[in-house]
Amino acid sequence: MSEVSIREVAPRDGLQNEEPIPTESKVRLIDALSETGVRRIEAVSFVHPKAIPQMADADEVWRQAHKNPEVRYSALIPNTRGAQRAIAAGFREIEVVVSASDTHNRRNLNRSTEESVDDIAALIPLVHDAGATLEVIVATSFGCPFEGDVDPDRVAGIVARVRADGADRIAFGDTTGMATPRRVRDLLSAVRPDLLHFHNTRGTGLANILTALDLGVTEFDASVGGIGGCPYAPGASGNVATEEVVHMLHDMGIDTGIDLDRLIETAEMAEKLLGRTLPSGVLRAGPRTRLV
Amino acid sequence: MSEVSIREVAPRDGLQNEEPIPTESKVRLIDALSETGVRRIEAVSFVHPKAIPQMADADEVWRQAHKNPEVRYSALIPNTRGAQRAIAAGFREIEVVVSASDTHNRRNLNRSTEESVDDIAALIPLVHDAGATLEVIVATSFGCPFEGDVDPDRVAGIVARVRADGADRIAFGDTTGMATPRRVRDLLSAVRPDLLHFHNTRGTGLANILTALDLGVTEFDASVGGIGGCPYAPGASGNVATEEVVHMLHDMGIDTGIDLDRLIETAEMAEKLLGRTLPSGVLRAGPRTRLV
């Protein structure tokens, strides 16, 4: 493997799990990331502002952001209304989430997994008619904090259904950091996604990516600085930090298109914008090639 | 692979890189670790108190510690005087460090790597005459913060020399967290150690262990709670956290003999003894099997 594609998710997934920051700061973060060489950015989500106040200004953030023609930008949406807003805003890559775990889906979306899959089926023609693509993110693919282990066959069943309904892409989300190298092997031997989204909640983030690389996966989400807060307690980390992923990949001779130094500068900027110490070793210590 | 042997290094390597804590706290830490099921503990080092004030009370710590007959305890020593103290204290597993990088060895030990290797040769008969074994820890094996990459052939040369001189065991130390999966493969294809000691400074700790497991290594150092401070800056982590290593291994069906719940309780205790938040995801979030 000589290339891996990183999707930078700090502006959406990351900021959605942090204290709200001003519109201007979000735009600065997207603009800085757009100049790192990363080729894909999850920019915003179009959700109800009461549900996710962090994304209440999504339209304004996106209007102000400098769009680098070299970068593909995507938006997350929860329903038809969100999809219409994303399309109207000009997005042509749209993501929607369904949880493999019924309990998690009900807590998150107030309906069963089956009902959400039906909703997605109804959404796909609308997205396609606008010339856009829909990625289905299967959350809790590696385990559910309420139900525990999730049967890989259940994930495979959801994937088969949404692919049959016309979904363009599939991602697996490690929503609360329950993935491990063993679980990555177990799930990927049952069903293959286009992209993997790991957290580093229990330290296995890069070990999971290494395992997935070994199984041929070449697309990963990551969040600059590890932005994305902690699902359980202060100090617990959320998303894998983009600079840690890129640092390991480049050392393996795998290209990402990303300028690691510029990415670390962006992580430093993000730390100031958020006003908190971010959980990224490469941000703290620099790359291994940085000598004393 | 069905079993891995963990050596718990928090009482020595960990505490040596933290603010000093009282003798009683050190004893409590060793005693608690001795009841987790871990089979090897690096307990103290016999160094000059001016060089390492954190270990000034090594004799007293060891005298007070409850020695579990199921546990093998080891001590680190820098020279003949240290070896004599360790042997007098009853240790039969002794460790000594030499840096693969000449610059690092001079900064650390005020002599060249070659001179240190000669010192070790002189030490071996003394250790063996006391019925003890000597492990040589080759520091900066995966890179030096002053010199950068370290040639695997240089590490191999040191190993060949000290093995010829009678060293019983070899460990490779990732002294400042420069190891990556690629560097682990590179070095281990040139020369094999008995044990690996990784840091998690740049997030690759568990990915490195996963790589080494794949290459057949079955012995690893780890530090409960990730105790061991930060070589560069606050927030940067040092040693891999034992509970993160054990959590990943047990999930893979690899036995360590350790009771993970008891280990996490010990990490919680250690956090109180040290009075700081320790960098361990499994300590924060619990194992993946802990449900909401």
UniProtKB/TrEMBL annotation, chains A, B:
Residues 1-22 are annotated as: Disordered. Coiled coil: none annotated. One of its GO terms (molecular function) is hydroxymethylglutaryl-CoA lyase activity. Pfam families: HMGL-like. The keyword Cell inner membrane does not apply. Transmembrane segments: none annotated. Belongs to the HMG-CoA lyase family. This is Hydroxymethylglutaryl-CoA lyase.
